[in-house]
Amino acid sequence: MGLVVQKFGGSSVANTERIRNVASIIADTYKAGNNVVVVLSAQGDTTDDLIAKAQEINPHASKREMDMLLSTGEQISVSLCAMALEGMGFPVVSLTGWQAGIRTNSAYGSARIKRVVSERILAELDRRSIVIVTGFQGINKYDDITTLGRGGSDTSAVALAAALHADLCQIYTDVDGVYTADPRIVPDARKLEEITYDEMLELASLGAQVLHNRSVELAKQYNVNLEVVSSFTRQPGTKVKEVVKTVEKLHVSGVAKDTKIARIALVGLLDQPGIAYKVFSLLAKKGINVDIILQSIGRDETKDISFTISKSDLETARTALEEAQESLGYDHMTISDSVAKVSIVGAGMANNPGVAATMFEALYNGSINIHMISTSEIKVSVLVDVADADRAVQVVHEKFFSEFGR
Ligand code: ADP
Ligand code: ASP
Ligand code: MG
Questions:
Q1: pTM for this structure?
Q2: Ligand 2, atom 9: nearest CA belongs to which residue?
Q3: Partner of 181 at 20 to 30 A CA spacing, among 193, 343, 353, 389?
Q4: What is the CATH topology of the domain spanning 3-174?
């Protein structure tokens, strides 16, 4: 007998029929002799609908109250799914994040799980109950409900799998695995049998929403046996693990797109030491993460610095930089939120020169203009106009996955 954690995303529990389908997958796992802990997301677009409701009442609602509201979506799913299993005659209990002992830090809206106090879950499993836990949430030291950031139910599942030493953590979703690109953008993208934690972490951080990036980080840290599978077809999915078989090792394992970013350019900064420090320490103090940075060569004793940040930080950054215009001494600021980052990821890239050039060639052939570039050992990212983003993913994918024979 093993312990299996199964997480089902929003589309997998979107309506009554789908909840019944999920209940039958859980029931089969249980009947095979396993202990089963389930994590559910809110149904369909519930979280978006709740955000829209909050906007109507107060567009500047506090993050604490937003978390109180958003956590309710998951509570609906777990109770309904438990009712379905009850009706099928299975012993089952649904628990909220706090009942399940998920303790987080205090960062409302983007909390991190600090630990899992697993007594309650273990007691329920001892009674051979199926345990169904609300994803995406926990409680902080003030006993307030916190949420883990959009897509965070994956992280709830992996954290529970790590804390309970589960034999397997399955992420059930609306695709049957991790593909070389989002199959909605590239219909002939290929399914990967396996992918390393490191590559998956890059892909997730660069916009591939199939897994929450923090869930991959935790899976790597605790060596969780992680698998992405479809709740609609009972096909083998994608294994996410430390090392993969050599045949699966590609120069490039995937292409990702992130549209939730904005670019800021500070034009006419003084070309002298300490300016970059001043700009970026100001943003750091506001808790703003900066991604790609580009500094122009100095001309006429001035230079320009442009950088990208998350769209959600744009207003805070704009206000802080406007207030500091005099002390930073720039001429003017330009902002664009119609940009997107397109990236290729692959552990094999480091030892294969020319990968970046191949990507740029694909973009050139597609007449797609590149605004910024950043590289690391296992990724190359470019900033393009958001209108070009899907096409950029398509041409880059086409180039790599026909040329390298995958
Ligand atoms: P869930 O609600 O189950 O958490 P998500 O919408 O968060 O599902 O994630 C699944 C979606 O991720 C897929 O429908 C797909 O469009 C998208 N996606 C983006 N990149 C990839 C990729 N490389 N492989 C598979 N799916 C991807
Ligand atoms: N319901 C949350 C969201 O829509 C969490 C999740 O689905 O993982 O972001
Ligand atoms: Mg998701």
A1: 0.92
A2: 150
A3: 353
A4: Carbamate kinase (3.40.1160)
CATH architecture of 261-336: 2-Layer Sandwich (3.30)
The residues with which 384 forms a beta bridge, in sequence order, are 340
Residue 248 Cα to ligand 2 midpoint, Å, equals 31
| Residue pLDDT tens, the chain, 406 long | 799 999 999 999 999 999 999 999 999 999 999 999 999 999 999 999 999 999 999 999 999 999 999 999 999 999 999 999 999 999 999 999 999 999 999 999 999 999 999 999 999 999 999 999 999 999 999 999 999 999 999 999 999 999 999 999 999 999 999 999 999 999 999 999 999 999 999 999 999 999 999 999 999 999 999 999 999 998 899 999 998 876 545 678 999 999 999 999 999 999 889 999 999 999 999 989 999 999 998 888 899 999 999 998 999 999 999 999 999 999 999 999 999 999 999 988 877 778 999 999 999 999 999 999 999 989 999 999 999 999 999 999 999 998 544 4
Q: What is 339-402's CATH number? A: 3.30.2130.10
Q: Give residue 189 CA to ligand 1 midpoint distance, Å.
A: 13
Q: What residues flank ligand 1, with Cβ below 6 Å?
A: 9-12, 41, 151, 173-175, 178-179, 181-184, 208-210, 254
- Give the start-to-end residue ranges of the domains of the chain: 3-174, 261-336, 339-402
Of the listed ligands, the closest to the CA of 136 is 2
Nearest one of 38, 37, 24, 31 to 1, comparing CA atoms = 31
Closest by CA to 301, choosing from 275, 282, 279, is 275
The number of residues making up the chain comes to 406
Report the 10 Å Cβ neighbour count for 357. Answer: 10
Question: Which residues are placed with Cβ below 5 angstroms of ligand 3, an ion?
Answer: 9, 151
